[in-house]
Amino acid sequence: MSMIDDFLIILWGFLLISLMGIGGFFMFRKFLKRLPKEDGKSTLDWEEYYMKKTRHMWNEEEKELLEDLVSPVPELFRDIARQKIASKIGEVALKKKKKKISQDVIIEGYILATPKRDHKFLRKKLDQKDIDIAPYENLFEQ
Q1: What Pfam families does its record include (predicted)?
Q2: Which of 25, 82, 93, 117 has a CA 20 to 30 Å removed from the CA of 7?
Q3: pLDDT tens digits along 99-133
């Protein structure tokens, strides 16, 4: 065996270990979301609960706005992001005792569900939609 063959085998080994580590990380994150919290329900259970409780409150216009807001998310992660964001929007709507999901509730829930590192992209998307973010500035600080 030559030196190049040895190098390729070692490189292939590191690549396999790295890819398995990345896959394991994402599987572990999903496992942690499934673990029950103090209240007996997991994060995913709460997301499903809010989705079911508020499903009837969504109109087509609001669904389209949500789709437009999640469009910058890579397609591989878009379904997961949509569920997380829609459940947070549902939680906000239920806490405020709303009868329907409105644009204000969507934006508030979207901001609260979005990690701080992605707020820059969210602000850009809201600017593209000509939505005034001044009333929501305090939410970006939380």
Answers
A1: DUF2621
A2: 25
A3: 999 888 999 998 999 888 888 888 888 888 888 88
Q: Do residues 95 and 119 make contact, with C-beta atoms less than 8 angstroms apart?
A: no
- With 90 as the cut, is the pLDDT of residue 44 above it? no
Cα separation of 83 and 50, whole Å?
A: 10
| Same domain membership, residue 106 and residue 44 | yes
User: Are both 57 and 117 inside the same structural domain?
Assistant: yes
DSSP codes, 109-140? HHHHHS-GGGHHHHHHHHHHTT---GGGHHHH
The encoded tokens of residue 115 equal: 């990690």
DSSP-assigned states of every residue in the chain? --HHHHHHHHHHHHHHHHHHHHHHHHHHHHHHHHS--TTS--HHHHHHHHHHHHGGG--HHHHHHHHHHHTTS-HHHHHHHHHHHHHHHHHHHHHTT-SS--HHHHHHHHHHHS-GGGHHHHHHHHHHTT---GGGHHHHH-
